Amino acid sequence: MSSKRVVTIGIGGASCSGKTTLAKWLLKILPNSTLFYQDDFFKLQNDLPIDPITKYVDWDCPDAINFPLFLSTLKNLHQVGKLPTTFVSNEVNNIYKDIERDELDELVKRLSLRINEVLSASVGSDDKNIEWYFVLVDGFLLYYDPEIIKELDVKFFIKADREIIKERRKERTSYITVEGYFEDPPDYFDKIVWPNYIKFHKNLSLNEQSSDLIDGEKNELVVIEDMVVFDSNHDGIFGANLENAVETVIRFIEKKW
């Protein structure tokens, strides 16, 4: 009889910070891996909150997400390692600009070999039929709910400067939703996206150094000690980030098992 081990990997950060890019490249490297989007748990548009100042539908706040359903699905994933065949993702149909470099393809081959060697070595003499599964959890409010954080074995946070994220957001023409499409109003980033990012991460410390705070007072901090933070301001550092991410997963496996 085979034994199953599931590793959940959280990839959080602002909209357009580079979460999905990292997740999709890790999907190429980690065996038996599943990409799970928080964006698939948006409420129906009629149930979304309305910003009291701009009167815009607010897709970028916690009340826009069905957190109970997201959490229950994540808990099940943490046990079984893959989504049920009946699960339908809308987010998978959104198109994102990818990073294309020949050296990344070579890096993927090397890291794939590395992770498979580690997984093979982790199998003891009494457990030869172990099956490893990896769940990549992509979310812009991934570290908002403490119960969600508890379900994440490995925790990544992607950072980028405000103006860079704003330009990336402009490159997206629309977002596929359950009911159709959503397009940003002209000032949606400045009035909704960025203020909400600051507001709902203001007490999160990205590591123990106060210089890495999103915003907020030290005595109110939520410190996630095993968080790994990546800078995604330019594509040139992506290869190093990807390798660091894989090595972090390996360290977790070696420590845990």
From TrEMBL:
Recorded GO MF terms: hydrolase activity
Domain of life the protein comes from: Eukaryota
Keywords, in A-Z order: Hydrolase
UniProt-listed InterPro entries: P-loop_NTPase (IPR027417)
The UniProt record lists the keyword Hydrolase: yes
Statement: the UniProt record of this protein carries the keyword Hydrolase: yes
Gene3D superfamilies: P-loop containing nucleotide triphosphate hydrolases
PANTHER family associated with the record: URIDINE KINASE
Name of the protein described by the UniProt record: P-loop containing nucleoside triphosphate hydrolase protein
Lineage, uppermost ranks: Eukaryota, Fungi, Fungi incertae sedis, Mucoromycota, Glomeromycotina
